[in-house]
């Protein structure tokens, strides 16, 4: 078992962590269909969906349009990268 998996297992057993994850899941389950969440550069952004429920793209289709930011959430440790 790696140090990361040992640490994750330890944290998973902690009541404050379990409670926070439970609240996070509930928020995700209650997310309005008109918005989606985008994580980039250490920030979380609540984004508007178009009328068909899809993210707005930049004019030339080369990524997500920042014009669709409803609100940005600062704080926490966020990483928008891929595995």
Report on this model:
This protein is an alpha+beta fold and 83 residues long. It folds into two domains: 1-30; 33-83, no CATH class. It is 30% helix and 20% strand. The chain is built from two helices and three strands. The chain has helices spanning 3-12, 15-29; strands spanning 35-40, 43-48, 69-73. Strands 1-2-3 form a three-stranded antiparallel β-sheet, with no helix packed on it. A hairpin with a 2-residue loop joins strand 1 (35-40) and strand 2 (43-48).
Key terms for this structure?
83 residues; alpha+beta; 2 domains; 3-stranded antiparallel sheet; 2 helices; 30% helix
What does the secondary structure layout of this molecule look like, with pairings?
Elements: H1 3-12, H2 15-29, E1 35-40, E2 43-48, E3 69-73
Antiparallel strand pairs: 1-2, 2-3
Q: How does the overall form come out from the CA principal axes?
A: elongated
Strand order of the largest sheet: 1-2-3
Largest sheet: 3 strands, antiparallel
Helix content: 25-40%
Number of domains: 2
Structural class: alpha+beta
How many E-type strands? 3
Estimated share of beta-strand residues? 15-25%
Provide mean pLDDT, rounded: 90
In short:
By secondary structure, the protein is α+β, with helices and mostly antiparallel strands. The chain has two helices and three strands; from the N terminus they run ααβββ.
